[in-house]
Description:
By secondary structure, the chain is α/β, with parallel strands linked by helices. It is built from ten helices and 30 strands.
Amino acid sequence: MKTHIAHRWRLASLSTLIILVSISIQSFLPRSIAHADTIAQISLSNTHQTIDGFGGSGAQLGAYDLQSLPDATRTQILDLLFSQTNGAGLSIVRSEICGGADYNTDNFECKSIEPQQGTWNWSSDGEEIWLMNQAKNRGVSTFMSTSWSPPAWMKTNNSTVGGTLSSDKYQAYADYLTQYVLNYKSRFGIDMYALSPQNEPDSNSTWPSSLMDGNQLKDFIHNYLKPDFQQNNITTKIIMPEVGNWSNVPSYANPILTDSNTSNDVDIMAGHSYDGHYDPLANTQGKPIWESEVSSGDPNDSGMGSGLSWAMKVHNFMVTTQASAWLYWEFISQRCCADQQYSLISVDFNNNTYIANKRLFTLGNYSRFVRPGYQRIDVTENPTSGVYLSAYKDPASSKVVVVAINQNGGDQALSLQTSDFQSSSLTPYVTSSTQNLAQQTPVTATGNTFAVTLPAQSVTTFVGDVSVGGTSNLVQDPGFENQTNSTLSSPWSRLEGSGSVGVDYHLAGYPHGGNNDGWISSASGWTSIGQSISVTPNTNYTLSCWERDSNNITGYLGVYYTSSKTAGPKTETSFSGSSTYTLRSETFNSGSNNSVTMYIGYPGVANSYLVADDCSVTAS
C-alpha cells in the first residue's frame, strides 16, 4: 500500500478505519494483477557492453586429439563448433602457448616454439595452427592465446610444472611471447587478437603452470611485455589475470589497475569461474571483461538439464557481470581421459564417435546470433519465475536478438513488446530436449507486441530486424525503468495538482512491463504526471500509455502546448476506469511547437488510483 493511504488511516477513528480497510481491500489489492501472459519490454536506446564473442579452447592437446580423428568425423565436429548455418557459430578460439620439450599426455604438455634458449621450432605447434585456420575458414576472426608455462629453461625449477618465472628471464619471456605473435601472423596468417602471459597464476597444478602474484604480473607486463609490443608495433591486446577462481580477479588485477602508470598496459580483464561466482568487477577502469574458461569435473550430462544450467551461467555473466566474452574450456573431450567427458562435444576415440552435448547448442543460442560487435540492450530480465531474457543489437545493421531461457516444466506464454522501435517479425530458434537451434515459423507483430511461446525447458533465440521507417519513442524513461526508488523523478514529474504521485519500484505484478510503473492517488482535485517532449513542428504524432486504475475514475491522456493543461490549448482523450491494463491513445499535431508536454491524470475521487506504464510518443 502507498504511504499516503496509511497516513489517512492513522487520522481516522476506529470505525472509519474498519470501513477504509474494507474499501482498501476492494480498491487497492487489484493493483497487483495476474496477467494472462507475461510481458517483457525491449528497448534499443540504453546500451551496455559490446560483445567480443563466445568460444572455447583446443589447448592441452585438445587440438591434437581433434586433428587425429578421421577426416569426415573432424569435419562434422568443426562444423558443429563454428558453422553459423548448421552449428553453434562459436566466434572465439583460445589456444595454448606451449612450453614443453615434447608431447606428454600424462600432464597435457605440448611442444614449445623455443625449447632451448635461441632455438626456435615453428613446426612445433601444428595442431593448434591447424585448428585456428579451420575455425578461420568457418568465419572465426578472434583468436586468443594463453601461456600455461614459460619453457622450462626460464623457470626457477627448470620444469614447466610449478615453480615460477626466473627474475632474470623476464626479458627473455617477453621476447618469446612477442615472437609468438609476430610469427603466427607472418608464417601462418593468424592475427592474434589477445594474449594472456599466464594461465591461472594463482594455481600450483600438476600440469604446466607457473605461479605469479599481481605485483609480479604488473612488473612483467609494464617493464617487459608492453614495451616489446610497442617496439614491434604489435596491436594484440594484453589480457589478464586469468586466475582460476573469479573471486580472485580483483586481488590480481588491482595492482596494475590502481596505478595510473600501469593501468593502460592491460586491455582486457579476464578470469575463470570454477568457483561459480559471476560477481561484477568493481574496478575494471572501463576495460572489457572476459570469462575465459570454465567447465565441470562431474560425470557428463549430455541432456537439456546441463544445457539449461550452462545457458544460465552465460546469462548471468552477460547481464550481471556485463562480460564481453564467455568461453567454455575444451571444445572436445581428451583422448587421455575417458572419465572426463564434460566438454562441448564428447568423443569416444576408440570408435571415433561423438556426442554433441546440449550445452553446445544452448551456448549456440548466444554465439550463433550474438556476433562480435553487437551491443547488449535493455529487456525485462526476469519477467516471471523461471524465465530469463537478455537482448542485443547490431549497431552496424538493423538486427535485434533476444535470448530467452525457460527453466519451467511447462510452456510459457510471453508478450515481447518493443518500446522504442518497430519490427515486423521475429524468427525463433529453439534448443530443447528434442531440438537443436531449430528454426521456427516467424512470429508477426501486432502493433508493438509479439505473442510468443517458450517451450518447456528450452532456450529460444529470437532474431529480427528493425523495420525501415520504424519510429523512435520520444518519451524518456517510457517504462519508468530508470527510476531508482519509489519517488517519482526526472524526466517524469507531477505536473499539476496536490494528489500523491510515485513509483511502484520493483513490485512484482504491478507494472505492465519491466520492474516499475508510475502512479497517482488523488482524493479530490485534478492531479497529473508527465514530461516535456521535443517534437518537430507541423508533424502528426501518436501518444499512448498503458493504464489501469481503481475502476471508479474518469482519466485523461493528452498533450498541452503552453504552460499547463488548464491554460490550454491541449489535445486529449478521456477514458473510463479499468482495473486491468488498457492501452490509451491519442493523436495530435505539433503545430508550430518545438516541444509539448504529455500528461496523464484524473480529477480526484475518494479511495482511487491510476497507474501508467510503457508510454510512447511516435511520429504517425
